Structures are given as structure tokens and as C-alpha cells.
Amino acid sequence: MTTADSHDNVQTQKAGGGNLMTDHGLRYYIEEGLLPDMVCGATHVQTKFQKKFRPRYFTAKIRGGVLEELRLWGPQVLKDGSLGQRELDYRWKFNAG
């Protein structure tokens, strides 16, 4: 069974009493409509791949109490405005030290 604890506009999904863990860290859900559509990419990378997505949750990698990476995730926004199946993200990386 999955439950969710609300923290203002952010929810941390829990399954079986623990946090939902992904390959990218803990997943925190964002209230729908809280953030505008974004273009995928990263702060440190220039790319020609410019697709829009609708932020639905974020992940955070924390090591030794230091935030290393933060990503916003959500479904791709298609040309007709509908949402696709593909999950896109925007990533911020932080230097530890």
C-alpha cells in the first residue's frame, strides 16, 4: 500500500513505511499547476533537444548531508498541448566542497 504525507505543496510518497527511492534519489511530488511548463536540459549543458515538460515531481541526491543534484521531472508536453508518455527533466548539479 502506498501513502503520501503532505508538506505544504510537496508530497513525499512512501511505500511500506519507507521513502520512495529512485535511481535519482528520493522522489517528492509537486502540487499540479504549481510550476509552469519548462524546457528540459541542464544548467551546465547546452543542447539542441528543446522539448517542453510539465513538472510533477523532483528528485534530490544528497550525500553526506550535502545536496549534489536536483531534478524536476514530468511528462513531455506535445505540440497539441496534450501530455505524452515520455518523462523529461531539468537538472541542477552542485559541487560538493
Report on this structure.
- This protein has strands at residues 2-7, 10-15, 18-19, 21-22, 25-30, 38-39, 41-42, 52-53, 57-63, 66-77, 83-93.
- The protein starts with a strand and ends with a strand.
- It is mostly beta strands and 97 residues long.
- The strands form two sheets. Strands 1, 2, 3, 4, 5, 7, 9, 10 and 11 form a nine-stranded mixed beta sheet that branches. The protein has a two-stranded antiparallel ribbon with strand order 6-8.
- 0% of the residues lie in helices and 60% in strands.
- The protein is built from no helices and eleven strands.
- The protein has one domain.
Summarize the structure.
The protein is mostly beta strands and 97 residues long. Helix content is 0%, strand content 60%.
Rounded to an integer in angstroms, the radius of gyration calculated over CA atoms is 14 Å
Described by strand count, sense and barrel closure, the largest sheet is:
9 strands, mixed
Tally of separate helices: 0
Give the helices and strands as they follow along the chain: EEEEEEEEEEE
**Domain count:** 1
Low-pLDDT residue spans: 1-19
The amount of helix comes to: under 10%
Number of DSSP strand runs: 11
Helices and strands: which structural class? mainly beta
Rough outline: globular
N- to C-terminal separation? 39 Å
Mean of the pLDDT scores? 77
Q: What is the oligomeric state here?
A: single chain
β-strand percent reads: over 45%
